[in-house]
Design a protein that fits this description.
The structure is a homodimer.
Chain A: E1 2-7, H1 13-25, E2 29-34, E3 40-41, E4 47-49, E5 52-53, E6 65-68, H2 72-79, H3 82-93, E7 98-102, H4 106-111, E8 140-143, E9 146-149, H5 155-167, H6 169-179
Parallel strand pairs in A: 1-2, 1-6, 2-5, 6-7, 7-9
Antiparallel strand pairs in A: 3-4, 8-9
Helix pairs in contact in A: 1-5, 5-6
Chain lengths: ~180, ~180
């Protein structure tokens, strides 16, 4: 199983790193792809070097999961990027692929019409910026292949849910135990 | 208030990033100093660029808090580093300074005799590698200026406790609310 984590300048570093680390603990092959090349500065100043720039991926369309960390500056960068639009539309339209977003990143899915008729969540303070009506107060929300979550404090639960979906409940339980959750 | 986070190759990236991010959210000036210069690869492959190498700090002794993220490969690097030994001894001996360690990193404090007679915690699976007797099963343990914690799943609670100690309960509550905790 393979997961693609999109890393934008200004992303929420806890969300980005928790996703990459927890998915790898679950035995999932993770690529953290930067919107730009080189080291990025995340929302609270932590500097992260993506595994490679998105443009250097031979294809970004052969992953089992596409997942977007949040952070408001990072989400604005995701919103402005036509490659991200194409990818979320592709993953949402392709059977068997999972699409995940946490915190501010569900705004990207909303902007491209992917939350219409769905149940989802986001950072609660951003709820008013989302046009679609299916907002749920649960920390992690699954609606078919769409999985969303609320913020840093729910990021481990979100990552574990993605491990469950990609690698099964035993893998999820084993990773949770190692995290002391 | 100022905090120094020591970043070793092979550190647990969630612990390192949660500490830096949450402390900064609490208004604390954080320096993430690398044992080596340049980008480091953390325990699950996330690449982090420290704010600067430890050797480039004019002084590492004027912080209010010295805190060590865990991760077992990273902790071995901390154990082998004479600069780290000198710093933990200095912070432990200097009134008013806080010393924190999480996960495997309490092994470093134990190796330098700083857990003797103290109540502390660590990653539970490493308890047998610690000679001192005061191990506690609590996720975050405070004994005077020594604050310890267990692992990735307790890292946010640990970082929030450090915010409380450095910036007060109002700051801690405000940060916790922003994290959705």
């Amino acid at each position: 199983m393979k997961a693609l984590v999109l890393l934008a300048p200004g992303c929420e570093e806890m969300e980005a790193v928790i996703l990459m680390d927890v998915l790898r603990r679950g035995g999932i092959e993770v690529v953290g792809a930067g919107l730009e090349s080189g080291v990025l500065t995340a929302s609270r100043g932590v500097k992260i070097e993506p595994d490679l720039p998105l443009d250097a991926l031979e294809t970004a369309k052969d992953f089992d999961l596409l997942v977007l960390p949040g952070g408001l500056p990072g989400t604005e960068a995701l919103l402005a990027d036509v490659r991200v639009r194409d990818l979320v539309l592709y993953y949402a339209a392709t059977p068997g692929r999972l699409l995940g977003a946490i915190c501010a990143a569900p705004l990207v899915l909303d902007a491209h019409g992917l939350l219409a008729g769905k149940t989802f969540t986001s950072f609660p303070g951003l709820r008013d910026r989302i046009e679609s009506k299916g907002w749920s107060a649960d920390p992690v929300v699954e609606d078919g292949e769409l999985i969303t979550s609320q913020g840093p404090g729910t990021a481990m639960a979100f990552a574990l849910r993605l491990v469950r979906r990609l690698a099964g409940e035993d893998a999820e339980e084993s990773v949770a135990e190692g995290l002391l959750l």
